Amino acid sequence: MISDAGDEDLGPEGVSGEDFGRHRLPRGLTLRALVPNAITSAALCCGLTGIRFAIGGDFRSAVMAIIFAGMLDGIDGRVARLMKAQSRFGAELDSLSDAISFGVAPALVLYLWSLQQMPRFGWFAALALAVCCALRLARFNARIDMEEQPHKSAGYLTGVPAPAGAGLAFLPIYLWIASGREEFRHPVVVAVWAALIAFMMISNMATPGWSSFRPRRTIRLELIALIGLVFAALLTEPWLTLVGICALYLLLIPVGVVRYAALRRQRGALPGGSAQA
User: Whole-model pTM above 0.90?
Assistant: First the structure.
């Protein structure tokens, strides 16, 4: 439930680090804050359950559990905003949940699935994924109260978001399950891919956000139909559909970089504009 606004229910640490001990601790969360925080907690449990499935060798269920955690993570913030229940507590809980569900859990799943075949190099690749996810979330939290966020003001994100990063990191598993070919499980391939996704999460490139998509009115009905077909495909051929979604997202990244660069040039050309915007 990370939000740029909403500072209700702040504890002493939410007010100021110097105010610790000067204010009473809040008696508890407001009733309306329970729902979005419960959703975040459920996402965390899904991520941890994915680790349990991976330890038992059920990698399909492990991946599905973490994907479900991503779906829950996608709605908890929106529920908080609809219920006007944003809080610093919710933002911190969301970040901790994301670090485990989309950093630690995918790293362990990939390690148990493939990377343990070369323990040293494979473990470093898994560590890179988990650490970079935590660094990305720390950077996001540090910028919550910043007024100047050029990427955000244009509807873009900075780097690949944590849930999308976890989904992309699982691409070799999707291909392995869909095709049955062991080449996709080769530890060198998986390690290089995990390291690449880790770098993309902490990179400074502009990646597409939901607010950057503004489909024309003439194609909105077709878009609704397409989304329905995608969900139907996920039910019938989930692994191939996930491969297609990953491929589409990867194609959108360079498009987003180019479009943001053009937008930045336009802003710089406006009177009083800045090329750094």
Answer: no
Closest CA to 156 of 13, 257, 51: 257
pLDDT tens track of the chain, all 277 residues?
443 333 333 333 333 344 444 445 455 567 777 888 999 999 999 999 999 999 999 999 999 999 999 999 989 888 888 888 888 888 889 999 999 999 999 999 999 999 999 988 999 999 999 999 999 999 888 876 665 555 665 667 888 999 999 999 999 999 999 999 999 999 999 999 999 999 999 998 888 776 666 667 777 788 889 889 999 999 999 999 999 999 999 998 888 888 878 777 776 655 555 444 4
Query: DSSP state, 26?
Result: P
Separation CA 109–CA 107 (nearest Å): 6
Pick the CATH number of 28-269 from 2.60.40.2470, 3.40.47.10, 1.20.120.1760, 3.20.20.60: 1.20.120.1760
| Tokens found for residue 273 | 């504009």
Helix (H) or strand (E) holding 47: helix 31-55
- CA dist list (Å): 152 to 140, 155, 237: 11, 5, 34
Q: Where are the domains of the chain?
A: 28-269
CA 132, 138, 142 angle in degrees (round to 5)?
145
Q: Are residues 172 and 193 in contact, defined by beta-carbon separation less than 8 angstroms?
A: yes
CB 158 within 8 A of CB 204: yes
